[in-house]
Amino acid sequence: MTRNVMISKVHVARKQLDMDETAYRELLQRATGKASARDCGPAELDRVLAEFKRLGWKPATNPAASGRRPSEKPHVRKIFALWGSLARSGAIKDGSRAALVAFIERQTGVSHPDWLTAAQANSVTEALKAIQQRSARK
Question: How far apart are alpha carbons 60 and 110 in whole angstroms?
């Protein structure tokens, strides 16, 4: 993994953990003795990423690496994107793929997202948008 990719992961982890500037700088200082990720080498960035993981950060997995490829159907990809957005915002508690499949099955009776028709996918998308709107009002 290149140094720039590692720095990007550090910043993604910081954002996902909702860490303020002071806490982030303290973590960098504690893990590396440096105040900026740009000043860190690969081994130091590994220590920073390990610290983020210890604090609860879970790096995203590459769907291709896990044997899953993104759907070729745009309406299905949109459903996954909305579900991920809801999970990151805290609007839903379980952002897993299994939870999404269960949600789709409750909504449509279809047990796999790729088997949805465009109309069924539209109803799922609208239901997810409604959850998003309700969450935004809180």
Answer: 27
Give the Cα separation of 73 and 44 in Å (integer). Answer: 41
CB-CB contact of 110 with 104 (8 Å): yes
Residuewise pLDDT in 10s, the chain (138 residues):
788 888 989 998 998 889 999 999 999 999 999 989 999 999 999 999 999 999 998 887 655 445 566 777 888 889 999 999 999 888 998 888 889 999 999 999 988 888 899 899 999 999 999 999 998 887
> Tokens standing for 8?
């990007």
Domain ranges for the chain, please list them.
3-54, 74-137
Distance of CA 112 to the CA centre of its chain: 21
Residue 58, token pair as written in the block: 């879970």
Would you say the pTM of this structure is higher than 0.85? no
Q: What does the chain come to in residues?
A: 138
Residue 60 tokens read as 């995203």
Phi, psi of 38 (to 5 degrees): -65, -25
